[in-house]
Amino acid sequence: MKFLDHLEEWLITFLIGTATVVTFVAVVHRYASGLAIPGLQDWLLSINLSWAQELTIILFVWMAKFGAAYGVRTGIHVGVDVLINRLSPQRRAKLILLGLLAGALFTGIVATLGGRFVWENGAHYAIFKLAGLSLDDVLEGPTTPDLEWPTWIVYSAIPLGSSLMCFRFLQVALGFWRTGELPHHDHGHVDGLEDAGPGAEFDGYALEDNLHPHDLRSAGAAQTGARADDGGRAK
User: Do residues 97 and 176 make contact, with C-beta atoms less than 8 angstroms apart?
Assistant: First the structure.
């Protein structure tokens, strides 16, 4: 899974990086074109960047779909678990597993319907044409307004991203079923910054505020520690 994890991260980084560069260039071009500088203004006006906005939207759509799958894997999606945390560990485990499987089912349905839509929207035509098959009664499909790309390529983000998200839900569900642990992302940690002191580490599972996810393993460890303290005091 390491290769898939790195590929997912590289793809998201490339998409957001490209979108940032395209947006920056388009904004600079827009404002620089308004400067009455002989020669430079005419050259800038001759450059057509009307496609920049459309490309940026496409990049952000793809980034959102694959970023959602990344969020499932790393546990950064926002969830309301106030009621779940008040249940017993056994019931809480069942509800968490049910929620993960429901997420897998939903994203699997979206991926299936999205794949069918992409197939009928032009992928059918492109694949048959590439394979040299008959194109009778096969629709070519529309194209985007500015870039004139086949729309099925743009819409492919739906089945691809949803399929990866479905896989991540199943992956997390399997890991939770085996170990009782959920992916945890430390929102208070910033890469490149050292911890406040030796051994200092943020533990969101230890916060009793009903605002952070409670891990079953951590809860069990806390109960074990409490029993040990009671035993020590009894002695």
Answer: yes
| pLDDT tens digit sequence for 218-232 | 445 455 555 555 555
* pTM given for the model: 0.74
Bridge partners of residue 143, in order along the sequence = 150
Q: How far is it, in rounded angstroms, from Cα 64 to Cα 43?
A: 35
In the predicted model, what is the mean pLDDT of residues 145-156?
95
> Distance between CA 227 and CA 235 in Å, rounded?
12
Asked if residues 23 and 15 have their Cβ atoms less than 8 Å apart, the reply is no
Q: What whole-number distance in Å separates Cα of residue 60 and Cα of residue 46?
A: 27
State the residue for tokens 């096969």: 138
What is d(CA 209, CA 76) in angstroms, rounded to the nearest whole number? Answer: 18
Q: Is there a contact between 52 and 144 (Cβ–Cβ < 8 Å)?
A: no
> Do the beta carbons of residue 48 and residue 157 sit within 8 Å?
no
Residues recorded for the chain: 235
Q: Is 143 helix (H, G, I), strand (E, B) or coil?
A: strand
Name the β-bridge partners of 49. none
pLDDT tens-digit series, residues 71-88: 999 988 877 778 888 889
**What tokens does 20 get?**
């940032």
